[in-house]
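dumping this here so i dont lose it
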């Protein structure tokens, strides 16, 4: 959809035309304002829907990573006890690294959720105004 400004086609007034499908629609200056506001509103709504989808995906990822972290934490506890008794210290190091990796991943997800919640609040404020 392209927006083209021309002068003189409708007399001496400025107008704009857009192509919707295969039709050319002529917009006067007053109707152009409504078109632009509507396009901005649609863009804000699309961005808001995208943010909401991403928040939903992050929520699911958060749930999965929390479950993985819990499982690896239990394994790590057992491995650390075994390492304290001198049994398989390499396993204890590996499980500790896995727990740390899942903790970093969980923190990253939470930070992304926080940023998206801020964007969501800004977009909803734009829609209300």
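and the seq i came up w/
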């Amino acid at each position: 959809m392209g927006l083209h400004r021309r002068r003189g086609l409708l007399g001496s007034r400025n107008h704009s035309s857009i192509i919707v499908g295969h039709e050319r629609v002529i917009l006067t200056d007053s109707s152009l304002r409504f078109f632009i506001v509507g396009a901005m509103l649609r863009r804000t709504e699309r961005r808001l829907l995208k943010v909401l989808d991403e928040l939903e995906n992050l929520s699911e990822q958060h749930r999965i990573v929390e479950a993985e972290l819990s499982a690896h934490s239990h394994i790590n506890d057992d491995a650390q006890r075994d390492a304290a008794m001198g049994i398989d210290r390499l396993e204890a190091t590996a499980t500790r690294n896995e727990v740390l990796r899942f903790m970093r991943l969980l923190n990253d997800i939470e930070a992304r959720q926080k940023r998206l919640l801020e964007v969501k609040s800004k977009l909803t404020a734009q829609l209300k105004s």
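The chain has two helices and three strands.
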